Sequence to fold (413 residues):
Amino acid sequence: MGFKGFVIRSYEESQLSDKAQVMDLERRCEIGQSKRVFLFTDTLGDPICRIRNSPMYKMLVAERDKEVVGVIQGSIKAVFFTAHKPPPGLVVKVGYILGLRVAPPYRRRGIGSGLVRRLEDWFLSNDVDYCCMATEKDNHASLNLFINNLRYIKFRTGRILVNPVRNHPYNMNSSEINIQELKIEEAEAIYKKHMASTEFFPKDIKNILKNKLSLGTWVANFKQPPRLSSSTTVGGNGQTTASSWAIVSLWNSGEVFKLRLGKAPFPWLIYTKSLKLMDKIFPCFKVVLVPNFFKPFGFYFVYGLHHEGPFSERLVGALCKYVHNMALNNSKDNCKAIVTEIGGDEDDGLKMEIPHWKLLSCYEDFWCIKSLKSKRHNNISNDNDNDNDHSHHILEWTNASPNRTLFVDPREV
Ligand SMILES: CC(C)(COP(=O)(O)OP(=O)(O)OC[C@H]1O[C@@H](n2cnc3c(N)ncnc32)[C@H](O)[C@@H]1OP(=O)(O)O)[C@@H](O)C(=O)NCCC(=O)NCCS
Fold:
């Protein structure tokens, strides 16, 4: 496909020049206008690595005179469409867009939108019902492109919480909380029973759990009720803390790609330098140090986070500390941060329990969605009934409570 002097074509993995040029483009692209710290991704010589674990994936490049000036990645998977009832458990195909980059000198020439449209065509040819993407609230270029230009709808807000791996383990209160690792089959059964109504819950959850990047699944419950006032051991609906539990799984994203701090605001630099100095002068204080994020580092991604019952947010907090301590002990993974994404505004209590650094985290990750039915309708036929049905679905999806839990697939991080 050619337009305005650019050609859009598939990324050729076997071509060394494609690989080198895409990696160079990634290095040159800052994402958004964040006033917070800015992280670059280092794909370890494999630019397509972020989607390689998805059931179906594609990478496109925009080229001008043999120079790669834009890139986009997409993956396809089947998820449960839970906003739609009945029938329960309806499965839809979702295309996920990520890694859109256009070289700075070539921006505002229609390359970004051209790449998205071309990826949507690939989705359509594979019977995808909806496509979605996520971007930070302050990435105006991206939001304008998807919402104003390409008619995506913002439908959820996620919160990405980042916790640096400290130089000291968290103290785990093992007399109060019990943490147990689950087998893959046990984890699958629990997720299917309790999370199947979660938005974007993947049909192939088992494939995620048994992927070599999945480090395990843990559940936590209270051995004893939390030591608060006696009345607080019973929840609003009469449940006791004995029924409370939480579950998380862990994904070794650092095995696929690394992150590196591109730039950091001045207060961050001052803060980290003073911590180092304090540690040097008063080693007995066991000052908590921040890792050197300017060198490429790995991270663990917490997925499949779910909790039920009174005070179960505390159980999630305990699980996050537990996986932090695991990261500290597994030095071979070079894991320097634990990343968790939670959804919605209701999660304030949960956010407080999950250890994270505000400066590294993003509290407003906008999820946008588009039904491809209208595009298919234009392309192929005038199947009005189905078209109405899809508009109805997307309305249900966008009108459903923003507090619904979102399953963030670790294969698309
Ligand atoms: C976002 C990005 C891919 C846009 O690429 P692009 O080739 O410039 O996009 P297009 O030329 O197709 O722009 C289409 C529309 O998007 C909107 N848009 C694009 N860049 C914009 C900007 N900097 N500010 C405001 N709106 C912008 C405009 O509505 C534009 O239409 P117009 O030029 O007719 O006004 C590019 O800026 C980029 O690579 N940014 C860094 C990486 C990034 O943030 N990626 C998105 C992650 S999801």
Summary: The two ends are 29 Å apart (CA to CA). Confidence is low (pLDDT under 50) at residues 229-236, 380-387. The chain has ten helices and 15 strands.
